[in-house]
Design goal:
Residues 1-15 have low confidence and may be disordered. The protein contains eleven helices and 13 strands. α10 (307-321) crosses α11. It is of the alpha/beta class. It has one domain (9-359): Luciferase-like domain (TIM Barrel, Alpha-Beta Barrel). β9 (194-198), α6 (202-211) and β10 (214-218) form a beta-alpha-beta unit.
């Protein structure tokens, strides 16, 4: 399951098999502000994301992903619809979910939506499945958080059957059973790539290997190097399950501007505001300027700076983690559409060439 037209490759530290180097962008549809720092409407934010995806294609980015969210700050509950709009205006870039909260969705409908996107885009779709670190979708769709683990396990099991193609027979507790059921649309060229997003659970790493899904490491804080054992565990688990090696990716937040100082000045106040807001809900520690500077440094999880600074950090961490893919979660609530477009242009035209050069 590979995801890029690039000819560049990177070797995994835990596995000699080489996969294409993929450099992508992710967004959660963070509400953008206008030049007077007023929040734009949800509708305009969504239209802006379409323009951002089109620009990503134009400047050579390999992948553009949209993460499912259901809040006023992240009005992006139907990523596949937005990705379809981007697909209609692009021809090369791969498109997919930065995360689909499978636990609160129906695996059949997820498969149908992304196989439809795969048809619309000419085979460029993929999906990253997650349990949902943001739990807003559970009460929205009537799911009990007490069933958090069982929901994801059973629905991942069903999705693994669906993506194989052909009639599906499946029995479980969380949705009605299927008996020799044909699920459409059929894909033209076999399964589209599917990943499991992992935020810190070894069990999730083993689950990805068990079902034959690629591994996406969501690293949003702390030293990325601490995730290296997960890459190694993934390779060992695949071997144990008798599966061929599969790609490993990294997803982390950041912001690119023409200089380190400009990137920090644009990103820091927005980052502080967003984390402070969610600290009340999810218990996050409110960052200080010192902790922020650590996170954007070489041992932190934020990729904030000039193209040279961000590229150097991406290349170093891909090597350290034995990964072949990096998706920058660009933007932060409150930034302007213009700042995000500059970020995307710099990422595609200056960051990605600098990453490819030492890793090719």
């Amino acid at each position: 399951m590979t995801t890029t037209p690039s000819d560049d490759v990177i070797a995994s530290a835990a596995e000699p098999v080489r996969f294409p180097l993929v450099l992508g962008l992710d967004t959660f549809g963070d509400v953008t502000h206008d030049q007077d720092d007023r929040p734009l409407s949800h509708a305009q934010t969504i239209r802006n994301v379409v323009e951002q995806g089109v620009l990503a294609d134009q400047v050579g980015v390999d992948f553009f992903g949209i993460g499912e969210h259901h809040t006023d700050d992240f009005p992006m509950p139907a990523a596949d619809v937005v990705l379809g709009a981007i697909a209609a205006r692009t021809a090369r870039i791969r498109l997919g979910s930065a995360v689909t909260v499978l636990s609160s969705d129906d695996p059949v409908r997820v498969f149908q939506r992304y196989s439809t996107l795969n048809a619309v885009s000419g085979g460029r779709a993929e999906v990253i499945l997650g349990r949902g670190s943001s739990i807003d979708s559970f009460p929205l769709f009537g799911y009990d958080l007490a069933d958090y683990e069982e929901l994801f396990e059973e629905k991942t099991n069903l999705f693994a059957e669906l993506i194989k193609g052909g009639p599906v027979t499946w029995h479980g507790k969380t949705r009605p059973s299927l008996l020799n059921q044909d699920v459409v649309p059929h894909t033209e060229s076999g399964p589209f790539p599917a990943w499991i997003g992992v935020g810190g659970s070894p069990q999730s790493v083993i689950r990805a290997a068990h079902y034959g899904f690629s591994l996406m490491l969501a690293i949003i804080g702390g030293n990325p190097a601490r995730f290296a054992p997960f890459s190694q565990l993934f390779g060992q688990a695949l071997e144990r399950f008798g599966r061929a090696p599969l790609p490993v990716g990294v997803h982390s937040p950041g912001h690119v501007a023409v200089t380190d100082e400009k990137a920090r000045d644009e990103f820091w106040p927005r980052y502080l505001e967003v984390i402070r807001h969610y600290s009340k809900i999810r218990g996050f520690a409110v960052p200080t300027k010192e902790s922020f500077l650590y996170e954007i440094g070489p041992r932190g999880a934020l990729y904030v700076g000039s193209p040279e600074t961000v590229a150097r950090k991406i290349a170093a961490n891909l090597t350290a983690l034995g990964a072949n893919r990096f998706d920058l979660k660009y933007g932060m609530g409150g930034l302007s559409h213009e700042a995000l477009m500059t970020n995307i242009e710099l990422y595609g035209t200056q960051v990605t060439p600098r990453v490819r050069e030492p890793l090719a």
